Amino acid sequence: MEDNFEPLIIALCCNWCSYAGADLAGVSRTQYPPSIRIVRVMCSGMVHPNLVIDAFTKGADGVLICGCHLGDCHYQEGNYKTEKRADAIKLMLADFGIEEERFKLEWVSAAEGPRFGQVVRDFTEQVKKLGVSPYKQ
Amino acid sequence: MPTLTINNAQIEVEEGTKLLHAVEKAGVKLPTLCHHKALTPYGACRLCVVEVATPGRPASVQAACSYPALDGISVTTHSERVLRARRIVAELLLARCPESEVVKRIAAELGVKETRITKKNDDCIYCGLCVRMCEERMGRAAIGFTGRGPKKKLQAPFGKHNSVCWTCGACNFICPTGKQVSSLATAGTFDPIRNIFNMDLDSRSATYIPYPQAVPNKAIIDRDTCVHLNYDDCGICEEVCEADAIDFNQKATTVELNVGAVILAPGYRTYDAKGSKDLGYGRLPNVVNAMEFERILSASGPFSGHVLRPSDGQTPKRIGFIQCVGSRDSERDYCSSVCCMYATKEALMAKEHLGENLQCDIFFMDLRAFSKGFEQYYNRAREQGVEYIRCRIPKIEEVPETKNLIINYLAENDKKISREYDLVVLSVGMQPPKEVKAFSEKFGIALNPHDFCHTSVFKPAETSREAIFVAGPFAEPKDIPETVMQASAAAGQVLSLLKDARGTQMTPKVYPPERDVTGEEPRIGVFVCHCGTNIAGVVNVPSVMEYAKTLPNVVYAGANLYTCSNDTQEAIKATINEHHLNRVIVASCTPRTHEPLFRNTMREAGLNAYLFEMANIRDQCSWVHMQEPERATEKSKDLVRMAVAKARLLEPLAQRSIPVNKSGLVIGGGLAGMTAALSLAHQGFNVHLVEKQNELGGNLKHLHYLLGGDQPQAELNRLRLEISRNDRICVYTGAKLEKIDGSIGDFTTTIALDGQTATVKHGTIIVATGAREHHPTEYLYGQHKRVITQRELEERLVTDDAFLKPNGKQKTVVMIQCVGSRDKERPYCSRVCCAEAIKNALKIKELSPGTHVYVLYRDIRTYGFKEEYYTRARQLGVAFVRYEEDRKPEVAPNGQGLQVTVFDQTLGMPFTIAADAVVLSAGIQPHEDNKQLAQLIKVPLNSEGFFLEAHMKLRPVDFMTDGAFLCGLAHSPKNIEETILQAQAAAARASTILSRDRIELEGNISHVVDASCDGCAYCVDTCPYKAISMVEYMWQGGVKKVVETNDSGCKGCGCCQATCPKNGIFVYGFTLAEIEAQIHAALGVS
Prior knowledge:
By secondary structure, chain A is an alpha/beta fold. Chain A is about 40% helix and about 15% strand.
């Protein structure tokens, strides 16, 4: 494993809670590693499992889905569906030879700026330990 | 008309044109130094030389600025001969004035790095610009050249100062080497026109745009200093303005308006710190006021965002802030409310600019961080090393050699300490606006004893005169959110007054017809924002911009200081037209706050609003990777690449609209809810007012008297009566909300009442559910009957005459502040407790002057005009004893009474008080059931459990969810006046929706791809809104099953698209293809 390996992580963040939490991390000047690339989605429930698998097979070192806390979903119950899909995604990961720890589902509210930073720091460390994606040439 | 050849191209010009203009007309730019549009050609610098060939004669080298564009000549602008000549000129100039930035730049552009000629280190290149400017345009001739050849010299006639010079400074302005030419002509010092916007720290011209975000963003002429208007000379601006916009004959006109109401918002004036002589402001160059420091910190400020001190332009390493300059003194017995926080902000920003090692000390008396989120901000500042020193500083001394400043102060342990600073910032207070007396007389309104606008506690947006309202610091010093609230409240009051005239004089906004971009190849424009220094301080903006230009389909990339400013919107529209853009990307901040603004710009430019995308390089790059500028820049490029990848796939979407149900739901029947309900009803809307208790009133029921002597119970009765008599308001008491469906303009709510349910329809929601008093668990509360809360004390003082004088003996009452506030569990300030404690202390002194009252506090936060009651309490002998958070007072039983021990910070020792009663200033705590309500409405709470507004400063009563608003204690702790203002503001904001007939909805909804859908119906069950249904139709001789979405029911969550195994349904603007394109772009694959 390379010592100074910097993982590249795709984060799919819902507009109402997690993307707002990431904004608050910015407003609060919470510092975190520049490892993630945030893709804004309206709800974590709109993330098709295929998108996650596709990201891995195209070389993402990690994929993070962030949504509202359970019960707080702007669309009533979108994140409950995300939770179930996350289980399905983990099953699929095994088939693709990708470590389960490269994928993470986290709930981050609009008020949890510093926590968003912590989630990114922790997940970056976790992915760092796993090393470069097996799909990266 | 002469026709000539320029670089082999024929061009026709007007008779009398100089060659330089002909060349420019042909699109070729030549270097110039002595040329100026407004002055006669001079041909001195020879930089603009070109090769001119006249038929039948050998080609010669001529200065284009003075050579006529003659018929039939042939001009070569960049031949080797010409370039050599220019380079020699550059070497000569560089030898004469090697320090001039202008000369260095011109030389570098010509490829000349060094001169072979002996350097002279002169400051004049004999271009004659100053001489011509003075004589031709200023009509003076106060300077000229004398001597010839090597003896040529720039000087005043006879080398003497003269009276012809009027010190206008035009010569200094135009000199390319920065020479102070005026000093040759006059002994008078040239005083440039000071730039008021930058607090006089830099200069401006007489024709100027006041500041980058000015509305309207137009240039104006300063009548007092314009040479043309005063002396009839100059007039250069009129000649050079290509838009012909200069009109020297314009006269001031008087406009008469017939209005039904007036809102006064004249703002405030900062205290002139010259009045505090010993602080040295105006005398010591490195003592600045906070407004000046704010400008110094700003990217558009006098030093372009570099934090420098005025005396020598050096970067300060130690900055001292002095609080309460012009506040809380013998002449101004009020607190300016905002200075503690702006000093904290400026200290943190200075550290952001200059690094964490910058020493920032704030000298203060009481740190008043009382607003929502402020205590936490204050704590963060302390964690980041801002030092808070509790001492009022009477005097600043200067070290004459260094111009550094010395502050001597007495530390809390009585030790004398002396600290040296490079810069001292005075936190100047707010004062009434200039000429306030004449202003108030003009409008016939009363002022209060401090000369601010008089208002009353129950009518906080009203002046003493009917139909004249007030907003902002003119009513009382206040911060941005409170100002915005009061402004909305005033607007709401006006809307009530003028409800019959509403909309009658309105011109609806008309957008130009939308350009059809179907079938067009994407033409993307990328606008990268500096955001002052917020982005540009970390991210290399030019590099991101250049990178954007290399991306597919990007045909334009530019950078702006503030992309959200008004003038930039105009620039974006012009760029869209000029480059025929059909997709726009702004790389700046978050779409959550700024997408609506830019989408509007798109529409104004005739593009569909959905052909727009943002890259959030501020919140996701510059602000979170501050220590890694290179990686932040690389990430910014990635984000722009991702945005471009998505933008290429964006399609125009239809604007949808639905009819608005013109009634409002108000949740909570306390002061806030009652006020909001009445305000909506007065504006002509129906209201459903829901209260969980069996009667209206909320916390107001427990207030019996106020600081100013007003009667809260009388007001409560008036409100109840008015509500019961208003047939627009339907009250539901003992009610519980079961369900809230729908969205802005069209909500349906189920209310449970006595085992029954009622369903109501409404267009907006106002959350006014209040908060409750904290139940203390400390200081023997609940264990000893003489330990009570402030609220219980208030009840006792009005009902129990004997409470203060049992057995006729004088009593001792000890009050303890910050019980359940400002601690680890509840890190916020409850804002009202200091004033409430003082209110009750004053009541005790009124009822029983002999009773001893002690207030044990951490900071007394009697902001605004509450300060005078704090003063009065001290005058009446109420003893204020300060304690530290980590050394809380101790309360022990003492026979029938109590014994309180407190470590006095001033005495530096503990002392004990025998108390007959201990009164706890229990804080304000959010309701436990806020969580359930938040989930019903789908709005967030903050980490303390209060409802979270859309924007702390600018949208203090809006939720991020459209159509929902908040007010009162549900938002954060606040007093009666502030609650009323916020409730009126929420009603005013709700009426912006209720007053419309239809409302536009987002176009990002789901769409079925008929060819891909096989009718499996997985999506039908997963849709949270039951907006998808199955349909069957005959197709190719068989029955085809597909799903169909109901456009008005769909909210665009996209659960359907994540469920569909066939790519048969997707959400516009977030299609799988679009998300995938972003992910691929992030990973650098295509």
